[in-house]
Amino acid sequence: MRRGYRPVSLDDVLAGCPGRSLHVTFDDAFASTVAGLEVVGRLGVPATVFACPLYAKDGRAFDVPELAAQAAAYPDELATLNWAGLKAARESGVEIGSHSVSHAHLTRLSDAELVAELVGSRQTLEDELGVPCRVLAYPYGEHDERVRRAARSAGYSAAFALAGNEARREIFALPRIGVYRGESQLRMVLKTMPLARRSAAIALRALGIRPSS
Questions:
Q1: What are the start-end ranges of the H helices in 3-110?
Q2: Does position 2 have pLDDT exceeding 90, yes or no?
Q3: What's the pLDDT band for 145 if we cut at 50, 70, 90?
Q4: Domains delineated in the chain
Q5: Strand partners, 173
């Protein structure tokens, strides 16, 4: 915020707030997210957590195929928020969004499987938390025209992707700046510079830093 960013609510994001706006999102709903939520809460920055009902039912380690080995070796580090944890976050003012039922690769699913992942997740989150589930974050950031159309048909108001074309606003592919463990302060400064994404990527490459995907 010292660099001119203004904290905004999810409603502001969906309304297309202009300028250097800041809304923090957390994918996968890890139990460790609570610590991050406490920090952004003290700073007065609104946040949204994207959760998968398959994991929320028991808060087990996030054992998607890509992380299965790590989940088996470090189950506590990859533990997820259960329904009680998500309810507590929601009661503190955090928005809870959908991350599909099981964190599936949505672009690889059949039409019926895609509907089950998107509609099933939204309905389960609403039933368990007692509030509307308005937004979706695509697992792995993967989406295409069919997936975006399915997200709209599933009843979401918007969907979040990864980095994209910020000059062209697409409500079902809202771009985000990724923040990952181990990133340097320099990388974060470059990522959040008020430049076009392409210019930032060029600057990173010029310094021998590979932009995150």
A1: 10-14, 33-43, 53-56, 68-73, 83-91
A2: no
A3: very high
A4: 6-176 (3.20.20.370), 183-213 (no CATH)
A5: none
Please tell me whether residue 1 adopts helix, strand or coil conformation. coil
Read off the amino acid at residue 179.
V
**136 phi and psi, to 5 degrees?**
-125, 145
Query: Could you read off the pLDDT of 151-198 as tens digits, one per residue?
Result: 999 999 999 998 765 556 799 999 988 776 666 666 556 556 654 344
Strands 47-51 and 24-27, sheet pairing: parallel
> What is the total residue count of the chain?
213
Q: Cβ(132)–Cβ(96) under 8 Å?
A: no
Report the predicted TM-score, pTM, of the whole model to 2 decimal places.
0.85
Question: If you search the block for the tokens 């938390």, which residue do you land on?
Answer: 129
Residues 8, 17: contact at Cβ < 8 Å?
Answer: yes
Each residue's pLDDT tens digit, 63-113: 999 999 999 999 999 999 999 999 999 999 999 999 999 999 999 999 999
User: Maximum distance among all alpha carbons in the chain?
Assistant: 49
Choose among 95, 125, 119: nearest CA to 106.
119
In order of 7, 23, 46, 101, 157, the CA distances from 11 in angstroms are 12, 10, 10, 24, 10
CA dist list (Å): 194 to 22, 40, 175, 197, 205: 13, 22, 15, 9, 17
